[in-house]
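Q: What would this chain look like folded?
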Amino acid sequence: MGKLTTHVLDTMNGCPAAGMRVRLFALAGAEATLLKELTLNADGRADAPLLEGAALHAGAYRLLFDVAPYFRARGVTLPEPPFLGAVPLDFGIADTAAHYHVPLLASPWAYSTYRGS
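A: My prediction, written as C-alpha cells:
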C-alpha cells in the first residue's frame, strides 16, 4: 500500500521542527487544491500519513512549509519580508504502491529536500 509522509528538521537549532504548519495541495496545471493542513508533532512529523491507500493518486503535488512563522515562534528575529517565508516543494507521484517520503531540512536562510524512504 502506497503512502505519502513528511518530516522537517530545523538545521539552525539541530532539532525536529515541532509545531511547523504544513499544507498539502494537489496540482492540476495552475490550479492548486488544498487536501490537508496540519501541524508537525514533537518529532517534526505528521501524526499519520498525509495520503495512503486509495487516497494516494498519481499526479503532481505541493507541500507548503511555513518556515518563517516557525522560526519566529522560536524567537528568531527575521527581516520583513523574511528571506524564506513559506517553502513550496512540488513533486510527482507516479507509483501509487510506493512510499513517498518528502523531508525538508530548513533554516531561516536555506533548505534542502530529497526523496526519503
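The CA atoms of residues 20 and 70 lie 5 Å apart.
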